[in-house]
Amino acid sequence: MEGEANQAYVTSFDEVENQPQRENRENKEQEEEDMDAFEFNLITDYQNVERAHKNLIFYLVMPFLKLAILISNHARLFKIGVMLILIAGFIIYTGFALSINLSEALIPLVLGCLTVFFICWDKFMDKYEDKIGAWYTSSTKNSPSFWRLIKIISALAVCGALLGLLVYDIFFSEDKIKEKNLIACAGILVYAFFCILLSRAPHKINFRTVLWAFGIQIVFGIFVLRTTAGFLAFDWLSNQIQKFLDYSQCGSLAVFGNSEGDISSFAFSALPTVIYFSMVIAVLYYTGIMPYFIKKISWIMETTCDVSGPEAIVCVGNIFVGQTESPLLIKPFIKNLTQSELFVVMVSGLASIAGSVFGLFVNMGIDSTALLTACVMSAPGSLAIAKMVYPEVRF
């Protein structure tokens, strides 16, 4: 009896001790139920407010509520109208800018054209991206006979066109044969031979990847170095980059003063360019602009060169950032990468320079057009070399 009495005492004591917590929990649950039951939409139910509760703030907010209702009821028309107004404003602004200063107005014109292009690109890819990717990445043996024939013909046409461009550029573009270009072509073949000779698994080399990577590199080099449009485009782009980087000198002069002739002028003039350009790249990454462009370019390499997504993203990312930053683009996938993919990450990083170092080299007087061309051409070239030396052996 005494034990039962003690047990009852302990139980009653625990109940008394936990009663405030239980009451607080019950009150909180009741408040949550009351809040769930009280559903009031200010936009749709403002007309049901009693007259006694309508004060000055209510009447001040009333026009904005009616405007919100009008916009919500005609959201599609409102969106189209805003877009038309923005487009018309951009066209008028660009037209006036072109009439006043043609060279300075090319920047907004190019940005506008790029915006229109990528909007059309996104619309097109939303419908046909899966079909295009499946057609390029599928094996020729598994394709229907008609598509197999189309793929073989297109591959032969691309190889023939590249070979024809090289032959014309070396032998027929000028009165004499370009011996330096012949030496360069022979050097590429010898270098590729040694890569195959030292390859971990020569029989596993995917020559589609190698040929497409070298093909993209050759096409880009011919476009920039052998065509007037390509040279002028990259020359204009390099001039804009040079002008953009010159703004860091204004900041350096404002902070350090005129350091010309000082033995430490490199630290006061060149290193601020690194900080300035690194900050710009970081802002572009944070706002999502840089990953957007990297994703578009990497899709082309992933589809044509038959490589994995992380490999393509790292190769393209190394055009803009350095070896230490580019692996961060694929941070969630690094632990699952194969040895071949890790080798691609390292080779592509060593084959390029960071954007901040690019700005530093330009500030030191190196031709920005040559640097920009080399940075872009190194992406497919490093991919080809890496896939020859260490091909994918795990499928």
TrEMBL record:
Keywords: Membrane, Transmembrane, Transmembrane helix. Residues 1-33 are annotated as: Disordered. Residues 186-258 form the Concentrative nucleoside transporter N-terminal domain. Residues 268-364 form the Nucleoside transporter/FeoB GTPase Gate domain. Pfam families: Gate, Nucleos_tra2_N. InterPro entries: C_nuclsd_transpt, CNT_N_dom, Gate_dom. This is Uncharacterized protein. It comes from Oikopleura dioica.
